[in-house]
Design a protein that fits this description.
3-stranded mixed β-sheet, 3-stranded antiparallel β-sheet, 39% helix, alpha+beta
Length: 132
């Protein structure tokens, strides 16, 4: 095998390796159409999905430290923003703040919170011992 063939083989192997990594990367797509939102996420980080929704719809996202970062997998078509948020945030603790606009109410902020059990445990650990 010549040096040129060896170099070509290495370059090809590196190129294929990089393509496989990119192909396996998480993807997030958010688009507004006539029928509502189209949200597609495959093994995406929660913050990436929420950031894409926030950019498209114009609201803020606040995430508490310590939130479990399970991958998000959704394929939604023609849904409202509220339905998209419910599906993306299912089995998570969250709150949605609204603001009044000329067109009615609009989502202004989404807070992703620690589960209630984690909050209770945290507040228990911060309490001072009872004085007897």
């Amino acid at each position: 095998m010549s040096v040129t063939s060896s170099v070509s083989s290495v370059v090809l192997a590196v190129t294929l390796s990089c393509a496989a990594t990119v192909a396996g990367a998480a993807t997030v797509q958010v688009k507004r159409g006539d029928g509502g939102l189209r949200v597609a996420a495959d093994e995406a980080r929660l913050e990436d999905v929420l950031d894409a929704l926030a950019e498209e719809e114009g609201f803020d996202v606040v995430m508490q430290l310590g939130i479990e970062r399970r991958p998000v997998n959704v394929d939604l078509r023609d849904v409202t923003l509220e339905e998209a948020l419910r599906r993306v945030l299912r089995r998570r603790n969250y709150a949605i703040a609204y603001e009044e606009t000329d067109d009615g109410l609009a989502v202004s902020r989404v807070h992703v919170l620690l589960p209630a059990a984690a909050v209770a445990a945290s507040s228990q650990s911060r309490r001072s011992p009872a004085v007897e």
